[in-house]
Amino acid sequence: MQLTKTNIRSFAFAAALVALVTGCQSNIDELTQTKTPDTGSTETTGLTAFTSNGSTRQVSATTRTSMSYPDGAFYWENADKIYVLDDKSTYQCSRNSVSADKQAGFKFMVPGAFANSNTYMVFYPGVNGTNNNVTIAENQTQNEPNSTKHFGEAGDCGMAIATKNGGQFEFKLDHKAAYLCFLPKTKHAFVSTYIEKIEVTSDNFIAGNFTLDPTTKKLTGQGTKQTITLNLGGTANPKGFKLESPNAQLNQNGAFMVIKPGAHKLTIKYYLKDAVTKVGGVVTKVVKSKNYEENKFYDISQDINVRDYSSQLYYMWDAKKDYWSGVANQPKDNSAPAGTGYATSKADGRWYNEIQGGGPAPLNASNKAKDCPNANECKWYVMKGDPHWDNSTLWTIWGHLRSGGIWLKKQNVIAAENNITPVSKLKEGYVLPSGKTFDYTKNYTDGGDANKTVAKGRPSVITNYFFLPATGCYIEGKLEQLGARGYYWTSSGGIATPKLAFYLHFNANEVRLANLNKRNTGQNLWKAE
Questions:
Q1: Bridge-partner residues for 3, per DSSP?
Q2: Among positive and negative, which fits the CA dihedral 247, 250, 253, 254?
Q3: Which residue, 14, 119, 327, 400, is most buried by CB atoms nearer than 10 A?
Q4: How many other β-carbons are positioned within 10 Å of the β-carbon of residue 433?
Q5: What angle do CA 78, 84, 87 make, to 5 degrees?
């Protein structure tokens, strides 16, 4: 059966309730029979009519405070059928099934004997169920936003007592599953990001085989599956459901899942994909344990946010202004042609600091790069920072999803592990394997060897590390290596060649203190952590 929303009212979210499951209980409207229900068949000999007059509605105080959510009405959908226990306690399946979508009522024609009572138990086990046996699917598919047309195949189910009225029996279905309504939103200005699927894992079973118990009138059984995957998209939405709004938008990406009622702690994974960059990944949320009652809907309105580097600027070494300051044609993808209008002489505030040797070393930055780590600090990060290349952590820049970056140990961790006190002594030099302290800011060097021992994935003790995205660099106006390499200036100019400066360089296979790129390269700034 499909739940159709009739009036979508305005949303009014409370900021304090972001990412929490509210106790919303949008229960099932009673439906009023407005016309003679379609029977789906003209042959009625030896059959008894069981007519659906809709679904029951539970009356209970709502606990939702963050939004106004519309009541829903269930409709019969194509291929729906019912089962009835007859006078011989035999399950009889309706000879006809619903032959059209979105039917408010339907006259089911059922074989068997129904002469000994004025009431009989009716079972709706879903499209894939039989008798009173229900299967809540571990794989569910929703083809379009704000639709519950898939509920019958997902495991929606119900029971009812049919009461005799003239020559037929009438019933209102009481649904026995619980329902999750996902309302994902984001603060990012995504332009081509979609949710491909939502995966829910519980601390107990939420899917599998169950039974509609005619005695307790409950859905019974333990189930066998702790994870349900809701696949999003169909012919009209082949990429999934769009993610782009800071507010919940039912018609944009509202998604519904059928689960077993009960107390569950839920781990929710949103699988995202950028249709332009082809970068995909997972954002995980955890919802604390709560009781999900039968015949009720529970909103899960969560912020789907990742690290945002859209405001991160690129600079020539120690320039006063950023590389693209005042220019509108900044390339924002590796495939884009070179932009124009970048600085080409020292008369421009975006030009690099031309400080040279001839005076006392070190050649320290005095403008935008002055707060970056110096070459010695950078060398400690490179050799003792336990670098981890992470291609699974999602981040965004300029409206698109990206991945790729490096985790490095924080300075206090490096200092403690190498008996350096205080931490500020890392600025003074790097201790070589020979035990000698070498000052990279005062000696002619290209930065020494790279560290090619780069682990893959996120570190286990993540609090000891910080992350730098692989945001690439600009060479003569052309964006290079976005998502594949990172280039971060230090505050130390190169001693050997006045047109060079030290910087941190990394990719998936190595991390190094480098002194190779010219100062007019557009690279990122950073601060020691």
A1: 74
A2: positive
A3: 400
A4: 6
A5: 155
How many C-beta neighbours within 10 Å does residue 114 have?
Answer: 23
Closest CA to 516 of 528, 529, 508, 504: 504
Write down the residue that tokens 């009716």 correspond to.
Answer: 122
pLDDT score for 361: 66
Spatial contact of 427 and 360, defined as CB atoms under 8 Å apart: no
d(CA 497, CA 369): 18
**Would the pLDDT of 218 be above 80?**
yes
Give me 194's structure tokens: 């979609």
* Burial tier of 268 (Cβ tally within 10 Å: 0-12, 13-18, 19+): buried
Q: Report d(CA 436, CA 429) in Å as an integer.
A: 9
What's the length of the chain? 529
221 Ramachandran zone, left/alpha/beta (phi>0; psi -120 to 50): left
For 335, residues 6+ apart whose C-beta sits below 8 A from its C-beta are none
Element (H, E) at 74: strand 72-75
Average pLDDT value over all residues in the chain: 89
The H or E element containing residue 378 is helix 375-384
Average pLDDT for residues 37-44, to the nearest whole number?
Answer: 50
- For residue 338, give the nearest of 481, 520, 521, 478 by alpha carbon: 478
Tell me how far CA of residue 81 lies from CA of 119, 213, 369, 524, in angstroms.
Answer: 19, 18, 71, 63
Please report where in the chains the tokens 């990394």 appear, as a residue. 506
Distance CA 489, CA 368 (A): 10
3-state secondary structure 121-177: EEEECCCCCECCEEEECCEEEECCCCCCCCHHHHCCCEEEEEEEECCEEEEEEEECC
pLDDT for the residue 72: 59
Question: Concatenated DSSP letters for 242-288?
Answer: E---SS--HHHH-EEEEE--EEEEEEEEEEEEETTT--EEEEEEEEE
HEC string for 453-510: CCEECCCCCHHHEEEEECCEEEECCEEECCCCCEEEEEEEECCCCCCEEEEEEECCCC
Burial track 340-365 (b if 16+ CB lie within 10 A, e otherwise): eebbeeeeeebbbbebeeeeeebbbb
Lowest mean pLDDT among 65-69, 369-373, 416-420: 65-69
Residue by residue, what is the 3-state secondary structure of 166-202?
A: CCEEEEEEEECCEEEEECCECCCCCCCEEEEEEEEEE
Give how far the C-alpha of residue 138 lies from the chain's centroid of Cα atoms, to the nearest Å: 19
Give the containing element (helix H, strand E) for 411. helix 411-417
**CA dist 348 → 111, 153, 326, 340, 494 (Å):** 89, 65, 11, 14, 22
Could you tell me the pTM of the whole model? 0.88
CA distance 440 to 443: 5
Q: Which amino acid is at 141?
A: T
Calpha distance 188→302 (Å, rounded): 13
At 20 the pLDDT is: 36
